[in-house]
Queue: 3 jobs
Job 1
Amino acid sequence: SGDLAATTEQVLANAQEGAAGQRGEAFFASQVAIVLCILGGGVPFVGGTLTFLAGPVAMVAGAALIIAAVSELRGSLSPWVVPASAATLKTGGVYEFVRHPIYGGLLLLCFGFGVVTSSAPRLILTAVLLLLLDEKASVEETKLGARYPEYVAYKDKVTGKLLPNFLE
């Protein structure tokens, strides 16, 4: 019990360190809010709206990304990380905004479906799929850079890896 009291005292002292507003309070507040939403089973006030709007919007956006990417790739499309021998590097169309729009579209479709069906397991599996596709894209980018020297400049220019990066 002495160790617990000493540990508690030290943790409280740690929480007082640093200047207010520079310690990462927004991260901690967000963390607490998200955990409370998880424990409470949803997002207060907007949960129904999220399910009603966010899921379908994500699914439509995902399908649009996939369709745009496939129509741009045409004969260069391959399921493998190694570019097809007949493939050419695509940097126009949707590829001007995102380097791997098919992967991003698939993630949006899966996320939207998880939201629409209110399925935590589907959302968790979508997060696992995100990790897999991010790694697959990284390996693919190594192969693309080896095959197409201009890929390095393209990668520097187009910062959106799986989804467009509109924040720049």
Job 2
Amino acid sequence: MALIQSLCMLAIFSDALVCRQFAMKNNTTTTTTTASTSTLTSTIANNTNPLAPSRLESIKNSYSELNLLSKTNPSDFIFDFDKAVTGVSTGTGGRTVAATAANFPGLINHGIAMTIGFLGPCGINLPHTHPRATEINFSVDGDFQVGFFQENSASFVMNEIHKNQVAVFPKGAIHFEQNLNCTPATFVAAFNSEDPGVLTIGNSFFGSLPATVVGASLGGLNITTIEDIRVHLVQNPSVGIAECRQRCGL
């Protein structure tokens, strides 16, 4: 009788051990499957979205040009300014479209970028700076008043450029492009950085700095007045100078 009981206990123990091992194996399989599914989902997302941050970061971290090319597709080296949905700024004075490393993977690690300005009649690309790039600006089909201010104690530089002429704006200089015509005009701006950055002066000064600091910078201007100014800040590009608007009946 004791022998029979011992054999029964052994059988029960063996079955429990087998069940436990099976459960552990099944759990490992489930975990592996879940991890694989997550990786696959991530891979599909990156392939679906060519501007996924993880994909851009991977291209950026390439150890050689050949390694970079192995991570890209032919379409990464083409950018359509007419169909762009990122890098676009639209205001009452027209539209600018920027191609940078953030929305054009083919620029990554190549040190260049470009913006096209489609300005309406009297449109102005508001005073701004590019903190990381010098700009060369080409007039495609218009007459532009252009100017820049480089730094304290420097002289303000003002010019007009016409079709097939270019202007240069040094790195970090405050500059602008004003369409002088009553018809639309286009410019092409090229930069010696894939990430030139942009800081629009009026919007950043009045819209981003604390009102108390802005007031102190303007001789103690009260906060209420500054808040009133903020309400009237415009999106770039805007309709430009009064002389042009009056001349063109705008």
Job 3
Amino acid sequence: MGAVVRSGELLRLALVLLATVCPLTRGTPLLLYANRRDLRLVDAAQSKGNATVVVSGLEDAAAVDFVFDHGLIYWSDVSEEAIKCISLNQSAGPPITVVSGLASPDGLACDWLGAKLYWTDSETNRIEVAELDGSLRKVLFWQDLDQPRAIALDPARG
């Protein structure tokens, strides 16, 4: 039979687990960025921010975003013509390809409220959307676009 854990102890255990698994919960401003061959995380509050490599061995990472509630980092890789994903807790396994068959995926943005993934493709002149797992892919805009490269969302306002 399992041990009985009171709700206060469970909450404390969950916070300790999050603090050890996910550096984004520690209360310091962190900056996650793509550095072409890797993804890095740096403490933005320190004047000499030493970056920690979160994902290495990438081909040509162009854009990066994350979904805190799911503990996932997403990035676009122009050379691999794909959008990939990895858990913040890398013990969950290697990166997975979420969307493939893209021509030049430059921009990327995660809607953490609607659980959607948006991206730009500067070669096909499209802005597309899919579920966070890459399913239900749909082209949103394709007319009157000239090499869209960046995208930003305001999920709170829809």
